[in-house]
Amino acid sequence: MSTKSTQLQQIADDIITDDVSPELRAGAIQMVFADGNPNAEIVFIGEAPGKKEDEQGIPFVGAAGKFLNEMLETIGLKREDIYITNIVKYRPPNNRDPLPEEKKAFWPYLVRQLDVIQPKLVVTLGRHSMEYFLPNQKISAIHGEPKRIEFGDRKQVIVPLFHPAAALYNGGLRQTLLDDFSRIPVIISKI
């Protein structure tokens, strides 16, 4: 087990030990921590697990996850090449949006995950994960545009994307997401 894996496992254990968001935990089957490669250059961050994710304990395994996998293939990547997580690690009841206090409770653990992985690029999926990194921005205005921010003691490049689930309800967004996704390799090469 690499030290990164050990450190990430410690963060997952801490979420359980610290009993982050007990109301959410009580309504969920299990914590959905993350999936993928701790040595990845790219970290994808969604908002919270859904029903399928809660059942399997893995982020992005439902319909939105299938679309994400397809988009990864278009840029020559697989799930094993990236690291994927959500801000909130338990499924909110009836897949409602995570509440501000729920996101706030999990935020320090997400920061620790990023500190361990030190990715070249963070891709936020949906406005909930974007707003923590890029407050007061509109996703419709800045999707697909790399932004360099101060993050802890380092600079971090963030690319906000629409959530893959949105593309399942809105066909027009599907092409937008594919177009934005196609820019990721270019952005990585410039970092």
Explain this structure:
It is a single chain. 49% of the residues lie in helices and 16% in strands. By secondary structure, the protein is an alpha/beta fold. It has a single domain (3-190), classed as Uracil-DNA Glycosylase, subunit E. Strands 1-3-2-4-6-5 form a six-stranded mixed sheet, with helices on both faces. Strand 5 (147-151) and strand 6 form a beta hairpin. Helix 1 packs antiparallel against helix 5. It is globular and about 40 Å long. The mean pLDDT is 95.
**N→C terminal distance:** 28 Å
State the helical fraction. Answer: 40-55%
Q: What is the element string, with H for helices and E for strands?
A: HHEEHHEHEHHEEHHH
- The Cα radius of gyration reads 15 Å
Give me the side-by-side strand order of the main sheet. Answer: 1-3-2-4-6-5
- CATH structural fold name: Uracil-DNA Glycosylase, subunit E
User: Proportion of β residues?
Assistant: 15-25%
CATH architecture: 3-Layer(aba) Sandwich
Our count of domains comes out at: 1
CATH class equals Alpha Beta
What overall geometry do the principal axes of the alpha carbons give? globular
Q: Number of DSSP strands?
A: 6
Please describe the biggest sheet, giving its number of strands, its sense, and whether it closes into a barrel. 6 strands, mixed
